């Protein structure tokens, strides 16, 4: 066990950074994820198929392609990157924020799918009942729809988190592999495998990676079950 | 309180074309399934937008398509009780009850939670989850939830249709209390003669998307032609009576009404309680002279005021008994044998045992009284 926890400072940094990146990616994806899922589940508009396709793009493109597109768009010279840096001081390129963006984008389709399914399962007659009780559409969403899709939100968030923990291709393409800044667990493992004698470090990080992912999965199961029991849906 | 509806609404092949006005305490929208009554109530609630027309309550215009007015449902302050209760599964019973109150401006909150809980007998359920309630309990909570939003009008869409007879009998008395003890006007959708006769002050009859008749309950319930074929036997006079006394020796109750005393099987209600009584036309016999040597206990003197052909060999005879019309369904052969015609002096005869819980308001169960 000591052998497992006896990490070098760089390895610790990779673990901490990975968790930070994954949590930020997950939290930042939630609001747009809910919005897009709502649009896809309920909206009737021109270009819905297109939007659906766009959302799913990161799932079917090679991650390197997604990473490169992010670099073109959000890099220092990219249109969005230059704009954000100039007006808001937000810089993505070669920063951990860029890693979070890449991970968020890669996990987005998984999150949207889970939330969309749960929105489609909501009994809209409940929402109508809330309307007759005086709740306007925003309140109906906040007090009825949101609580009813909570299990789906949890599932979507955990999927996004797990994807972020494992994301490699888009991250390394977009923000490279800089220790202490953009070197997440997968990048660190990759680095270990590229140097002689790195096997032990790679194995340690691999095991840690498994433990974190399993813990996230178990946590989501427990949460979902608790929510489910509380609602005891017929 | 007046509900004015004049709308045209099309849904696929079905066209609803309804025009009526009702100022009753409890107005029943009555008709077979597919007659458009649920659509009509959805239009009043604001769940649907009519193609054309106008809906107003006490002069407050909710919908006027020509003028471009459409008040969204959350601003209508109209309570709705659905057939399938629709309690929010993520909230406790108490949470469900308080939900609407939250959205009611404080100045307009008239409903008191303790009073409503007491009225509906749901105090012991407050901490439960909706999934743990029986069908009857769910429906009572749903009624309470709608009331606590302090609505100006309460709509009930077949609230008993998905319940078995025992659960219906459990809830009916609460709806009667609601009608008698609160000031909220109610519009009640039903296809059941028994429910309408027991609850309604006024009835609007719908068939195939059109209003075919509207009026006071007693008048409509005697128009057997308006009732669905399978329920025609249920039609008849509807009387508001009061329990005068109980005859414990024979297990009967004596009710006082405009037509005189009526004996029915013992009711679980105290003396003085009011009871809606329905005298089915098929249960009424006619005698031309005071009967003697007859087992039937209720003999009401009156005058024939209407004779109309019924289905098959039957005729329907309206008998004015002290200002209230009682309907009798007899054969044409009997009518001729008795030489009945308008103005004939007759006696309407009704057996005590023809009254049962379906046509004599059985009232609140004893345990709910205490």
- Provide the gyration radius of chain A in Å: 20 Å
Overall SS class of chain B:
alpha+beta
The proportion of residues forming helix of chain B, as a percent range, comes to: 10-25%
Give me the number of helical elements of chain B.
Answer: 9
Query: What proportion of the residues of chain B form beta strands (DSSP E)?
Result: 35-45%
Q: How many distinct folded domains of chain A? A: 1
Series of H and E elements of chain B: EEEHEEEEHHHEHEHEEHEEEEEEEEHEH
What is the helix fraction of residues of chain A, given as a range? over 70%
Secondary structure: number of strands of chain A: 0
Number of strands of chain B: 20
Average pLDDT for all residues of chain A: 89
Number of domains of chain B: 2
What is the H/E order of chain A? HHHHHHHHHHHH
Any idea what the radius of gyration of chain B is? 22 Å
Describe this structure in words.
- The complex is a heterodimer of chains A (234) and B (370).
- Chain A has helices at residues 2-5, 9-42, 48-60, 63-74, 79-88, 96-120, 124-132, 137-148, 150-166, 169-175, 185-194, 199-231.
- Chain A is mainly alpha-helical and 234 residues long.
- Chain A has one domain (7-228): MetI-like fold (Orthogonal Bundle).
- Chain B has 370 residues and is α+β, with helices and mostly antiparallel strands.
- Chain B folds into two domains: 3-221, P-loop containing nucleotide triphosphate hydrolases (Rossmann fold, 3-Layer(aba) Sandwich), CATH 3.40.50; 238-281 and 293-354, RNA polymerase II/Efflux pump adaptor protein, barrel-sandwich hybrid domain (OB fold (Dihydrolipoamide Acetyltransferase, E2P), Beta Barrel).
- Helices cover 22% and strands 36% of the residues of chain B.
- In chain B, the strands form four sheets. Chain B has a six-stranded mixed beta sheet with strand order 7-8-9-3-10-11, with helices on both faces. A five-stranded antiparallel beta sheet of chain B has the order 2-1-4-5-6, covered by helices on one side.
- In chain B, strand 1 and strand 2 (14-22) form a beta hairpin.
- In chain B, helix 2 (93-102) runs parallel beside helix 4 and helix 4 packs parallel to helix 5.
- Chains A and B meet through helix 7 and helix 8 of A and strand 7 and helix 2 of B.
């Amino acid at each position: 066990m000591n052998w497992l926890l006896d990490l070098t400072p760089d390895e610790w940094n990779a673990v901490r950074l990975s968790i930070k990146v994954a949590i930020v990616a997950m939290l930042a994806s939630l609001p747009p994820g809910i919005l897009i899922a709502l649009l896809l589940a309920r909206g009737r508009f021109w270009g819905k198929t297109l939007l659906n396709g766009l959302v799913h793009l990161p799932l079917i493109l090679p991650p390197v392609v997604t990473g490169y597109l992010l670099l073109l768009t959000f890099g220092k010279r990219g249109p969005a990157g230059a704009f954000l840096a100039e007006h808001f001081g937000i810089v993505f390129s070669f920063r951990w924020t860029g890693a979070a963006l890449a991970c968020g984008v890669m996990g987005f389709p998984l999150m949207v799918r889970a939330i969309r399914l749960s929105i489609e399962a909501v009994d809209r007659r409940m929402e109508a009942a809330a309307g007759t009780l005086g709740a306007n559409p925003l309140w109906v969403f906040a007090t009825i729809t949101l609580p009813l899709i909570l299990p789906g939100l949890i599932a979507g968030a955990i999927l996004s988190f797990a994807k972020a923990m494992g994301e490699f291709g888009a991250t390394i393409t977009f923000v490279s592999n800089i220790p202490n800044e953009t070197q997440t667990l997968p990048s660190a493992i990759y680095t270990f495998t590229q140097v002689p004698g790195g096997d032990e470090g790679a194995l340690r990080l691999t095991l840690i990676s498994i433990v974190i992912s399993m813990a996230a999965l178990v946590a989501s199961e427990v949460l979902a079950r608790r929510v489910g029991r509380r609602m005891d849906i017929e | 309180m007046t509900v004015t509806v004049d709308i045209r609404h099309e849904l696929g092949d079905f066209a609803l074309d309804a025009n009526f006005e009702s100022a009753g305490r409890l107005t029943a929208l009555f008709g077979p399934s597919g007659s458009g009554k649920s659509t009509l109530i959805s239009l009043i609630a604001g769940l649907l937008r009519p193609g054309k027309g106008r809906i107003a309550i006490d002069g407050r215009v909710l919908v006027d398509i020509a003028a471009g007015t459409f008040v969204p449902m959350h601003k209508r302050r109209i309570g709705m009780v659905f057939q399938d209760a629709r309690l929010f599964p993520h909230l406790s019973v108490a949470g469900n009850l308080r939900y609407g109150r939250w959205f009611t401006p404080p100045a307009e909150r008239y409903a008191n939670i303790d009073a409503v809980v007491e009225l509906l007998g749901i105090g012991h359920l407050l901490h439960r989850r909706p999934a743990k309630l029986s069908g009857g309990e769910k429906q009572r909570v749903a009624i309470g939830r709608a009331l606590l939003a302090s609505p100006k009008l309460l709509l009930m869409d077949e609230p008993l249709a998905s319940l078995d007879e025992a659960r219906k009998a459990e809830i009916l008395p609460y709806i009667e209390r609601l009608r008698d003890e609160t000031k909220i006007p109610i519009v009640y959708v039903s296809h059941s003669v028994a429910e309408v006769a027991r609850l309604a002050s006024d009835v609007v009859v719908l068939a195939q998307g059109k209003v075919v008749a509207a009026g006071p309950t007693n008048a409509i319930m005697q128009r057997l032609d308006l009732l669905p074929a399978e329920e025609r036997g249920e039609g008849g006079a509807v009387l508001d009576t009061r329990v005068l006394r109980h005859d414990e020796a024979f297990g009967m109750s004596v009710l006082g009404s405009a037509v005189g005393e009526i004996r029915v099987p013992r009711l679980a209600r105290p003396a003085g309680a009011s009871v809606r009584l329905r005298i089915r036309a098929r249960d009424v016999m006619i005698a031309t002279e005071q009967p003697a040597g007859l087992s039937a206990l209720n003999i009401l003197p009156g005058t024939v005021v209407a004779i109309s052909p019924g289905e098959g060999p039957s005729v329907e005879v309206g008998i004015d008994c002290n200002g209230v019309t009682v309907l009798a369904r007899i054969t044409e052969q009997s009518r001729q044998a008795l030489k009945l015609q308008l103005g004939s002096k007759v006696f309407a005869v009704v057996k005590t045992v023809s009254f049962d819980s379906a046509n004599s308001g059985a009232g609140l169960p004893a345990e709910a009284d205490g």
